[in-house]
Amino acid sequence: MKIDLHVHTKKCKQGDADSREISAIKFNDIVQATQVKIIAITNHNVFDIEQYNEIIETVAGNIQVWPGIELDVMEDGKRGHLLVIASPNYVDEFSEKVHSITHGTTPDSFEISLDETIEVFDELGPLYIAHYKQKKPDISEVALEKLINNTKYPNRVIKEVSNSISAGIYISHGHPSIYGSDVQDWGKYEEESVDLPDLRLPVESFEQFCLLLEKDSTTINTALDKKTSDNLVLYPFYASSKVNIKTYNDINIFFGSKGTGKSCLLKSIEKHFSDRGIPASIFASGDVKLEEVYDIKGTNLTVNLNAHDIEYCLDEIEFIKNAEEVGVTSIDNYISYYKKEVSNKSSKNILLKDFEHEDEVKLERAFVDYDESHKQVESFLDFLTSSKPVSEVMKEEEQKDIFSKLSNLQERLIKNRLNKFIGWKETRLLNSAVEIFKYEISRKTGTPSKPATTGFKKYALNRIEMEVKVKKVLDSIKKQINEQVEEVGNIGVDKGVLVCKTILKIQDGSITDGALVTYDRMNKNPKKEFSNSIERIINRIYSDELFEEITKLNSIEGIEDIKTISELLLFRKYFALDDIEYSPSSGEASMLMLQKELQEDKDIYILDEPEKSLGNDYINDVIVPLVKEKARLGKKIFISTHDANIAVRTLPYCSIYRSHGAEGYNTYYGNPFSNNLVNICDEDDKLEWKTISMKTLEGGEQAFGERGKIYGNI
Amino acid sequence: METFKATVINNESKYYIEIKDIDSLIATIPISEDEPNKVKLAFNSLILRLKEGDFVIEMTDVGNDLYSQVSNEYINQLNREIGEVFSEMEHYNLLN
């Protein structure tokens, strides 16, 4: 939620740019596209109530629009600009007051004294926002002091500076400061709004904003209570060391010097949630290495070839390795048969011996086809019977009709399947009978039987089966696997996004890249030789050299380890930036590990000193926004830190400060909004949150100074 | 379906079946001596030829001598087996 307390909707003075003019509809469109939820209209010496009301109607409650004016204030002969912003509840009164002082003047000629400004507007309890220092024309220190002393609302006097860094610096030095867009061109507003201040607490009204400025504890607690919270009872140090703390589904920071037990507190939080079955684990920077997380060595790499449309070919490879030549019928058998005449009279009468063999394969296949079709229909019928959705949407009549048709089809399939089975078995019986009769006649007469086959079919089928299987293996070998790219994280604006690439290749006999290693950690050479040998085999399927090649295949050293295509897999995993291999430094690895932790979708994040090895820029630009994003999503975030960038810039809902002194260990609880830290064992023992943060945290002063993007302590 | 002619050839007292597509020799099968490797070579040629399409082999000039009878029977059986092998090749999509 962002706030912009200085916008113009009209060109009022001659020097104002035309691009400050905006219609209510355009205003609504532009502001709705940003994260700005509170906006004050502060035109130069003008308040146009008609335009204000039109805008209020158009934004329809989606944005808070506060009425205001940017006055030319003359004090001690010096002109300065002062924004006066009132509650929307007093818009009519505010409009009348503006009219009363500007009546008869033009925006260019109008000027007002500080005394008169206070006299006219103070009764509305407005915010006074004075141009300060570099924000020209500025109100002098003397005039500001006069304003603070004379108004009834000194806490509502804020200094407007020219940018977020200045605002942070002034805030850290105790000056309530803010900056607004002072919009010059609405066409650029969406882009420029990114730098406007954030509000950490939900501000629902002008009045609430003013109370938060005054650090009103009830208002702060009411705002904090809008967030879901838990009262945790922890035992971080020993059984009797009970610590009660209220934590929020937001950012909860634990800080304090080293050795004050922050990590113990985090462990007790982890245990608290884990004991209740809620997944929670501590992330500690440096505990796990990036290379291990991404398994760069591929120790746990698993590849499912089927997922890449590649067959493992276990049976095929085994078949090829064990392939044997099939003999052909000796021509001598024919010659012997025709040379000797069968003399036995009875045997001449047995005509069965002269029958030719019938083709069994075709008949068997016909039976298998019917059998499979029958099974498919049966399985579909089972599905229809058992499927709840089908029975819900299908009418009874439809059901009967479908079942009747499918049952009829099934009957015909069963009948034909039986016929095919009988035909197949009849032929097998006949072929067996022919063989037996031939054998018996030959045995009894001493005459060789007539060969039933030349051996061509058996020989050819053996080679055909070999061709089918070798082709399948080769198809798998030649398949390409797409490179897998996993985003690891951003390692800075100048370097960009680091990715983890996994290259998988099947050794097809041509791969020589030494960076690719074997998936099964075995020697590379046999894999290469295997693929080359398969390539030679396919070219010799119908050649007399086929079985020589198979012998060569089987003589490859380590061939027994190649059982599937999986054994031919080579891989390479590496980190890359812009397609070039990159080894992240230990600092970058820490960054990425933390990013990974925060990118995981969890309900609870427990981070132990996440800043370790990380640069300030990275914490500010990447980690703090990620943590804040999680907070916006209502996640519980517990961070133990020494780093002010995290503790201050995130403005945590809950801050736990651990200290150690002569009196022993103490735990303080508080938040930056109230600027208090209270000893949980002694309510009278209070510390100032800001002072302690600046003293305890590394980079505290600087963090406070640069925090301007988050408005003050709201 | 194509028809190739087969003839029994006597060359220096050795008998062969020569299978030809017009004048182009497809295969030679020795029938007077047991030479399985030469038979396999002939079978390989026949399988490769089958990839182009189904065919039958027709014996020409069949006499009553022993080798003519052997050749006739051999080619009869071979024709039946060629038909069956062609079906298998078709089934496995191995035809050119």
Report the β-strand fraction of chain B as a percent range.
25-35%
**What low-confidence regions of chain A span 5 or more consecutive residues with pLDDT below 50?**
none
Radius of gyration over C-alpha positions of chain B, nearest whole angstrom = 13 Å
Shape of chain B: globular
Biggest sheet descriptor of chain A: 8 strands, mixed
- Could you give the count of β-strands of chain B? 4
State the end-to-end CA separation of chain A. Answer: 11 Å
Number of helices of chain A: 25
Structural class of chain A: alpha/beta
Uncertain segments of chain B are none
* Amount of beta strand of chain A: 15-25%
Main β-sheet of chain B: number of strands, strand sense, barrel status? 4 strands, mixed
Mean pLDDT of chain A: 87
Tell me how many strands of chain A there are.
22
Oligomer: heterodimer
Give the helix level of chain A as a range of percent: 40-55%
Fraction of residues in helix of chain B = 40-55%
Derived structural class of chain B? alpha+beta
State the strand order across the main sheet of chain A: 11-17-18-10-19-20-21-22
The averaged pLDDT of chain B comes out at 92
